[in-house]
Amino acid sequence: MTLLAEIAVVVLAGIGMATCFVLLPDGPPAGGRRRKPVPERPTPLVELERLVVTAGTSAVQAHAYLRPRLIKVASYRLAARGQTLEQMSDATGRELLGDRLWDLVRPERPFPEDRRGPGVAPQELDAMLEMLERL
Fold first, then answer.
1. Distance between alpha carbon 66 and the CA centroid of its chain, in Å?
2. CA nearest to 69, candidates 42, 105, 44, 93
3. How far is 55 from 62, CA to CA, in rounded Å?
């Protein structure tokens, strides 16, 4: 091949490539090889997950942060039965809610003496929530 023919091939190849770039769409391919963006997690869900983790770290965390939420849920579930936590006897509370949950939500519960005492483990919380669902 002569030099002039080689130059012509290079020029034609360049024109062909330029034409391909012009004809290509601007975005990603329609088939979508790009990964879909991960949706942002709802803030309340993140807060509840954090609450479950921190409530397991100490009795203070469970008392200060988990207890108020459990009181709301227990009050709501008991209201459907025509009962309230405030009017409930200790024996009835233990019977309906179980010992551990009743101890956490009972109205006269004092602040934990042992601030570094155990909190509520996720498995324990799961059992408490199951108890509330059965009401």
1. 15
2. 105
3. 4
Question: DSSP secondary-structure letter at 37?
Answer: P
Helix, strand, coil in percent for the chain, rounding step 5: 60, 0, 40
Query: Could you give the CA distance from residue 110 to residue 1 in angstroms, rounded to a whole number?
Result: 97
In single-letter form, the type of residue at position 127 comes to A
The pTM of the full predicted model, rounded to 2 decimals, is 0.68
CA 119/CA 115 separation, integer angstroms? 10
* Cα end-to-end distance, the chain, whole Å: 91
Closest CA to 78 of 99, 96, 55: 96
On the CB side of 82, CA atoms within 13 Å amount to: 0
pLDDT digit string (tens) for 84-122? Answer: 999 999 999 999 999 999 999 999 999 998 888 899 998
